[in-house]
User: What shape does this take?
Amino acid sequence: MKATINAQAAVRHLKKADPVMAGLIRQVGPLRVPVKQVDDLFGTLVDAITAQQLSVKAAATIYRRFCDLYGDPDQAPDPASVLGTPEASLRAVGLSRAKALAVVDLANKVVTGTLPPLAELTAMDNEQVVQSLIKVRGIGRWTAEMFLLFQLGRADVLPVDDLGVRKGFMLAYQLAEMPSPRALLAHGECWRPHRSAATWYLWQATRLNEIKQPG
Assistant: This one.
């Protein structure tokens, strides 16, 4: 089992390591990363694929319709049953062609063992998990990093390509423009091994700025 988020240790480290982050923590308050433990790897990843570039409500509706194809709107199907599903049926529940192909590819990789089972992923380090997941069509590095953060609850994830994180850094550190992924990665070295907590606080910096904007 790899290191998972420890709120008290993370906040203590970030306050000591980075004065600007310390100020942001005082503004935002306690660390509350909403980790949802995985019990069904296939269903979790189908949900992640479905949610890409959609609102939470729209994604949830499509995911339930997908599950309902196999008899239970509240439970993901067995991956093997998805392999025989016509693309038209997957499209009919609201999946784009790209997402339908991604779901079938995911099912195939689960069934064939190309994608390691959850127990093996849990034992891997962060980069090994990312490299395993991005072999699936439709899953990129960002989706894999969100899986690490919100499903596995890993303590040291910094998604440097995430626009919300980069914008939050710009706001918190009072920069004229968003940092490059490379610059963010370099600064984030001082946050190790608690970069997931820093990521969450940077998202909150963006949220605070939106609240301050006149309606």
Summary: The radius of gyration is 19 Å. The domain at 7-35+157-212 is CATH 1.10.1670.40 (Endonuclease Iii, domain 2).
